[in-house]
Specification:
Largest sheet: 4 strands, antiparallel
Strand order of the largest sheet: 4-1-6-7
Helix content: 25-40%
Shape: elongated
Number of helices: 10
Number of strands: 8
Structural class: alpha+beta
Order of helices and strands: HHHHHHHHHHEEEEEEEE
Length: about 280
Amino acid sequence: MSIGNSPEDERPFEDVSEEARPSIGRVLQQARIAAGLTVDDVSTATRVRIAIVHAIEADDFAPCGGDVYARGHIRTLARAVHLDPAPLIEQYDAAHGGRPAPTPAAPLFEAERIRPERRGPNWTAAMVAAIVAVIGFVGFTAFKGGDEGAQDVADGTTPTTSAPATPTPKSDKTVDETPEPSDSAIAAAPQDKVTVQVSAVDGKSWISAKDHNGRLLFDGLLKQGDSETFQDSEKINLVLGDAGAIQLYVNGKKIEDDWQPGAVERLTYTKGDPQAG
């Protein structure tokens, strides 16, 4: 019987340090728990998505999108749970083929510098420029025409349009065709409302009418002989482009104001009008 070590004692020495070494994810998870932090806390502090934090703690680095991003996330998470990231980065490099060689900056710069530029026609910019030019021309034409009409009104003349070669003379018959309200019509005017009748007896005139709420009742051109009547419970606001061409009846009574041709008048009538004087 020999005296010595048993067969178990004579087994070759096994270095189990690598096998016993915890994984990167396990180290990060234990450090997070020891720091009293949740995955949500770590995600908020590092701006690393919750799903990626869970994946790294499970040693799944695929969601990181590559080795460079995986190293960055490991470094960030380690600092968030108060660990030195260097040993974990070394452990990651050892398990994933080492740190990749850095990409030289010069070739990238040269490739970027010699990249050919597109010199084809920029049709989009050309179309936009053409559309802007058309809109500008139309707007300028409309603005110029509006200015001329406003200047005519300010100067006391009625804006004119192109007339036929042989103009039709104005006859007194047209004026007479606009009837004045009869006594029965005056008596029938509602007492609880304001009623305004606008007639173009001496030519055409642009007019605008609004009720007491500012709602537009009419906005347009009255040709000679045309007439419009407006009613409201409180008041009627009028704008006459050529007051000299207009005859007004308010609540069945004729307004005798002597307006000059081409004069612009802004008027307001209520249920009590026309007042004496």
